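Sample entry (220 residues):
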Amino acid sequence: MAGERLADAVVFDYGGVLTGPVRHSIAAWIEADGIDPASVSRTLKAWLSRSAPDGTPIHRLETGELSVEEFAALFAAELTTVDERLVDPVSLLGRLFAAMRPDPAMFALAEELRDLGVRVALLSNSWGNTYPRERIDALLDPIVISGEVGLRKPHTPIYELILDRLELTAERTVFVDDAEPDVLGARAVGMRALLHTHAASTREALAVLVPDLPRQPPAA
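Predicted structure, serialized as tokens:
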């Protein structure tokens, strides 16, 4: 006999949760463009780490204050290549995300949850990248994307916004993200939150909260 259901909604991050790891796409871009990896690490640490001050170029990109083109120019200026070429800012983020692909196992998991009567939603910090809108619009509701609402994780207002649109309490809502600061931000407003590493472990953790969810995916 299944136990009590503890979640009425599951909110998914996009990049690195409903897709393969973002770091794999970044690694492919670094290799293809001949970027010095140390320059990428240095810039991401300065602009995105927990110790980064508010208002970095990444923060402003995520909230829509910087355009993709403005951000790309700033980002390219911070990067170096292994053969000392200038980094081309044109379509820079397109190249960075070129190898990021939807994870079929995670989309299937979201579909299973929805079919069980659990709300499934999206909460994503955008780097101006495009989303497969037809696919996610058909599956996820509501959809909150940082650049469209002028808010970003891990700040409290964006979690409050998704809860308001779900019309659910925090304790009945689960958030799934691959970034620990964003998981902690969700927990700070009272949401249950899971740190995603791969589909199998996320499914197992969700099955504890949604007992009628099978711990193993259906056979193909």
